[in-house]
Write a structure and sequence with these properties.
single chain, alpha/beta, five-stranded mixed β-sheet, 22% strand, globular
Length: 317
């Protein structure tokens, strides 16, 4: 039986629902998005996913019978075995049988996974991790997400809630995390954490140009400002950046020591800082991994696919 040439990939985000049609070469042929509006009944969100997919197929003149499968990436704790969103705080969702609902519209196989896992798979099959069989992706946004591909297979664990790399411990009794625990990797390496670190430092130095960049109101601090101020020679901002690189580096060292991947990729907003982030980060990590440089230490790189990683990865589930 000939392999069906097309797949449907869905990236369900807090702001937008993004749907794409993906071919056998993991290329997006077309994509569309609509606002998620997660405050409405979840069945309406599922209906929008289905309608976007059907509209794309119609525009491409592709029949649903030519599609192999559909994959959906969603934030939150995902039961990938039963296709259930166990918990998604930004949607206020609990125990949502999303795959069952989507099967009302489609008879093809449908798979659900965590969105960061989908991004990791997308980067492995079509992005900065292409050609590697062992890849770790860390996303540095509002939180810290992560995904692991080992021997070419996406690792999700045996039950819901596996591979939450942002909620591994970095500091015992440290900063409070959004999950309720203290000292999580996310509480030190997310964009929100970096903004908090920047605010604290600026409060100790009235001459820091971070004040000017925040327009005199430190509540405007974001993860980009410490990097921009450091580039302009602000010593207080440079200390913030240096500390952030240590926090992020230690979390990545933990990932490397556990999986020893071929590639470590960074996505999310903070990764846009480029060389001022990546170069010192590699210098910090390289000698501190187990056995130092006696063994293989992967080079840390920026992920390549941006917002398309979730669609491509979902389609590849």
């Amino acid at each position: 039986m000939a392999k069906k040439p097309y797949r449907i990939g869905v990236d369900l985000g807090g702001t937008n629902i993004k749907v794409g049609i993906v071919d056998e070469q993991d290329r997006i042929l077309a994509k569309k998005s609509v606002k998620t509006r997660a405050e409405r009944p979840w069945q309406e969100v599922a209906k929008d996913i289905a309608e976007l997919a059907m509209r794309l197929l119609a525009e491409l003149k592709i029949d649903i019978s030519e599609c192999e499968k559909m994959g959906v990436g969603s934030p939150g704790m995902i039961d990938h075995i039963n296709g259930v969103v166990v918990f998604a705080g930004n949607f206020n969702w609990d125990d949502i049988p999303l795959v069952t609902e989507l099967r009302r519209y489609f008879s093809l196989p449908i798979t659900l996974a965590n969105d960061a896992n989908c991004a990791a798979l997308g980067e492995t099959v079509a992005g900065a991790g292409k050609g590697a069989r062992h890849v770790v992706l860390i996303t540095l946004g509002t939180g810290v997400g992560g995904g692991v591909v080992a021997d070419g297979i996406l690792q999700q664990g045996g039950a819901a809630g596996g591979m939450e790399l942002g909620h591994t411990l970095l500091m015992l009794d440290g900063e409070e995390c959004t999950c309720g625990r203290r000292g999580c990797f996310e509480a030190y390496a997310s964009a929100n954490a970096l903004a908090r670190q920047g605010r604290r430092a600026a409060k100790t130095d009235s001459k820091s140009i971070m004040h000017e960049m925040c327009k005199g109101d430190l509540s405007n601090m974001n993860g980009a400002i410490p990097f921009k101020a450091a580039q302009k020679g602000d010593k207080t901002a440079q200390r913030v950046v240096d500390d952030y690189i240590r926090y992020l580096g230690e979390g990545l060292i933990n990932c490397i020591n556990v999986w020893r991947p071929e590639k470590v990729l960074l996505g999310g907003g903070i990764s846009n800082e480029g060389a001022p982030l990546i170069n010192p980060l590699n210098e910090y990590v390289r000698p501190r991994c187990f056995a130092g440089e006696r063994g293989f230490v992967p080079h840390i790189e920026i992920a390549a696919l941006g917002n398309d990683a979730g669609i491509i990865g979902a389609a590849a589930l």
